[in-house]
Please model this.
Amino acid sequence: MKQLSCLSITALLLGATALLPALPANGAMTSNTNPFEKGAASIQYGPQTKLKKAERPTRADEYPDDIDFKIKVDCNSSKLHLNCILCYNEIWGFVLDEVDVESDGYFHVSDIPGEYLFVAVFDHPDHDGSTIVVKEKVDIQEGCEPVMLDAYTATEKITFDAVTSDGSPFKGDILANDEVSVPGAIYTGYGNTEIYHQTLGQLLTCFFHLEAVDKDGVLTYGPQEGDIYINSLGNDSEIAVVQVRLGRTERGFEIVKMQAQGTASQTVTNDADSYLNLKNVFSPHNTPNSWVEAGYAASESMGYVSVWQGNIEENQVLSAVYFEEQPNMDMMYMSAPPTNDPACDFQIIPLFGTHEESGDNDFIGRGSGLFLPFMLDNGDGRFKVLDNAAANGFSRDEWTHSQEYIYPNIDAFNPYLEYYIPSGSEEIWGNSVPIVLASIGYRHNTDSRLQFAFIGRKGDNRYIDNQNCKFKMTADGEVISERVYYTSKDFEYWRMEGGDFRSTRAEYVITIEDENVIVDGIQGYNKTKIYYDTNMSSANPPALRSLQFRDGEGNLCDRFNSFDDAVLEFYAGDFEMGQCDYGYNYFFNYGMLNDAIAEYAPHGTDEWHSLYPEEVPEHFTEVAYGALYRAPFSDVTAESEDGWYDLRIKLYDTNDNYQIQELSPAFKLNKPDGVTKPSVAVNMAGREVEVLNMQGINVYSGIYDNIGNMALEPGVYIVRTVGGSNSATKKLTIN
Model:
């Protein structure tokens, strides 16, 4: 039932707080117009400024006087329509469109002299692709000749022809008179053809459908819209052309990246054998609830975001939402064949969210942005999973730079936190109590700009938890908000006094409680308390930026067979909101903590014992992460009845601002084989039990007598009783 599926598309903006009809200062432009409507724009434009570090101006630089020059566009207006001209110089970028043409037919520009890149983008009325005209390294000086952007020179055609994991064409249905005339392999899907510049990053992305429309024997919409015509640029061009397609097949969720070899005419394809695959299992979470309205249901999916030279690019996150009737919802296939430019990657994102019965999603909405972790093809049969706390959970860019690095195109990924998943594996997302990533910023002294996200142990972002967590914010003891997503407005209303804004100086207390987590069948929670006094020199509270546990071999783990050489690790710092006088004005600057405390307790006991974290200087990361703290689990000596332990982390700055997070349960010591009295036979007949595999994952809950009806994989399992006055545990071996 292909018509039961839906693939929803959501724009991702780093550095912009809303979708805008024109290029904002540091965001992207998107069109909400139906792409099947004739003449609808389907192009998004990248950020204005993306320069190499060596080329970035300092705040002490003085701009030279502007000069006047002209730009002329030549095209067959009956075949092409000028969408815009992208102009980049050594300092910034700007956009020209048709309304900027003067009566003499030229674009008149007044700007600084120097080397420029020009990109003219044309729409096709017949929707058979896009035409791109590029002029690189143009020297603009006083009295120079007009810059000619001639669409007739765009004679090189780059065609993309992808296949799915079973070798079928990566295309959807062909529709004629609103009926399916030729079925496709893709239930529904989308794609983006992306243009990159070696220094500037992503210049634009052209969106297209994989479902085609047959109009009188001519395909007027469909995958061919992803093809481009471009002028010959030669082998030394800094331009790269990439296409990403994703959609739903009978086998699962599929995504492919292809890159052209230069800009000469060619057909780019992929190989079905190049696909990696992964079975994604999303742990249960509690819905519906007070914050998720009636008609919503829990939903999990995958999406992608483009990356250039390790940096996240402004782009769309495409997330698939499917109804239960569709098969293999948990399988993901990814093809990223080697290219001539390894700097360009796309990355896969596991998404927790909600969707309405109508199919509309709520993966990205009030209070959240990117979703982590990012996964990419590591080129050796494994997925490489990256962490980017700079962007995780936020649709803002303050975490991507600092006072020293004022531009947001630094490498914000932290290599120390990455890990690998072999192709063909099963990966469980969300089976841990998340931490809270919270930031509090101040813009123009008008609102608190509190934003937070729940991040699990593997980097998974549980946006679903934002929907129904308990939240409270007070100022000088007065409650100013108990609504998760409206804190800025509530804060603004609280500051109003007689129609004017009163002082923001106050002591603030924020409490966030997330009780939506189920870990191996156990109800879990995160309780976070944040205190900060804006009367003090340090106006921002400390921030926890990541949390991981590692076993004795350095593997990412939170269920241990032994605590020998195992460690707790977390990134944290006293990040202060800062402002500079050039470019991106706001950032979070790292500051040292006054104290970082870690405590553990046997699960549910509230009997806290000290761990002893120490800073690890060699893994210090100034932007987004801060200092790495490490505490050995050799100090965990208190015994836990079920093996689970709770964790509490307390962070203090020099002004006694603090953040405290309590996670329950947080980590586990797997019980050895046997029971409390191994010499006594255990009779579990008729009792409620749960069965755990050796990774501590619950694979069955129910009556003991029915375990034999379960198709358990061969291996060793732990069976333990649930409820009753006499608990019991025993080992079960399946041959």
Q: What stands out?
A: The chain has two helices and 53 strands. The helical segments are 463-466, 487-495.
